[in-house]
Write a structure and sequence with these properties.
binds 2'-monophosphoadenosine-5'-diphosphate; alpha/beta; 6-stranded mixed β-sheet; about 270 residues; 6-stranded parallel β-sheet
Amino acid sequence: MTIKTAVIGHPINHSKSPIIHNHWIRQHGLDATYEALDISCENLEQGVRKLVEEGYSGFNVTLPHKIAIMDFCDEIDETATVIGAVNTVTIKDGKLYGTNTDAFGFIQNIKQNAPEFEFKGGKAVIIGAGGAARAILYALLHEDVPGVTVTNRTPAKAQALAVHSPYNIKILRWNEREDAIRDANLIINTTSLGMSGQDPLDIDPSYAPASALVTDIVYTPLITDFLARAQKREMPVVTGIGMLLHQARPGFELWHGILPDVTPALEESVL
Ligand code: ATR
């Protein structure tokens, strides 16, 4: 029987998930489908019920439903509970099981593209305090990063992030963002700054040690202005596309029993 899967969101036409999942479905010769379904906030409950009735095996969840979907899950695992959002749902015997794979995606992207990098080697600095920052903070703490500093334009959001964490998170003001990276081992832009059509992230990576790994969750363009500045200084960089590709792997494994690989061919078809 054909295994039916999907991504739900609103809007949905920008989603890269169908390209990723259909690439793997073809690669592994599976009898399976993966569609992009536009479901508005008002229709979320009804839309999800329809997926269950139609025998879907699972679905990804993107904006704006990552938090609202939690109300309709029968079980939510620890990762998604701590991150406070669900991006992957498995349907089994009519029940919905929610998880969040963003932290996995973030870590695996770095492990694949900067295999020498040591998370335990020093402090990490998270720039921004939105949903992505929350998943990345969770990921870093699981890798035993010895310290995390968060800097965000709106300090209250950085504080809210820190409150949810049992660890000691240092918060620096947005006007101190270049100070924040002075002794960083890892710097992560989780804001939308640097995305095509937006202002660049106004932080000079040369304030950080030359050995610091610089990474961005923005992947349009692939080399953001921030990453380009780091590259110019010969700092190691990891682009954001890999987080998107790697976060898709656990869902595919849950639905098809195969943990797929991220290859240059996949990256090329998504870009
Ligand atoms: P996501 O879920 O993708 O992380 P989000 O929750 O909207 O998205 O968070 C976006 C992040 O980008 C926030 O940290 C936001 O800062 P605020 O908390 O102050 O809003 C940051 N951001 C967006 N535009 C920004 C700008 N022009 N200057 C500084 N930070 C910006």
